[in-house]
Amino acid sequence: MTEDSDLAATxxxxxxxxxxxxxxxxxxPPWRQAPLIDVDVLVPEGCRLxxxxxxxxxEILGSGALLHDAHRAGREVLVLxxxxxxxSHPGSRQWAPGELGSTRAYESEKALAVLGIPADQLVRLGLxxxxxxxxxxxxxxxxxxxxxxxxxxxxPWRYDGHPDHEIVAHAVLDVLDITAAAHLEVPIWGLHWxxxxxxxxxxHRAHRLPLDAETQKLKAAAVDCxxxxxxxxxxxxxxxxxxxxxxDRLVTDCEVxxx
Length: 259
What we know:
By secondary structure, the protein is an alpha/beta fold. The protein has helices spanning 3-8, 22-26, 29-33, 39-42, 58-72, 97-114, 136-144, 163-179, 190-193, 213-223, 227-230, 244-250; strands at 48-53, 76-83, 122-127, 151-156, 182-186, 206-210, 254-258. The relative contact order is 0.21.
């Protein structure tokens, strides 16, 4: 077993409460010591960047800056949305699942446009939100038809804490040897449930992509496109899916990639 599976697979990965503040991560010496990296190293010339998003918004939260930098550097870019995110508001009278899925897909297009990426570089696979746990092989088959050996593939971290995130990462791992040049993993909810002192994140593989002021503003503007996720649901009494304390961890001065 790898260090990832030894430590993280047995950890309590429940996403609850407000989680670990970004200040705790930034104050942790290994965070500051993780090597800085740029788009030319993460996505070398001649490679295509493929960001696989379990739900619309994951591509921006985890990799908005990398998408922007790769597009600006002239790399080909593809975003694969595995689900339409129609399950984010269970029991809501404000959002019917079909309407919510269409809305979230549109929000994703708007967010990518903020980063300069046209809508034809977004492909929706249409698999069920919250229903990927028993569909890992199906996810792998769907991805194989869109990925080739020149691609640098980005997914959430394989032990990120959300079942759909983990299934997507493991689906890529199942076919990585025949489909892609490299696989990068991004902690999204992993930064929420984990704490630095637990040492469950594979920090020996961590690299930081720094965001300049302009890119931070663009990523924040892209996140703002996901209105369905940023407002409370008055019909259920639930808070926003992406409250401020969650965004503070993800819209900051760097993106973390496990290589």
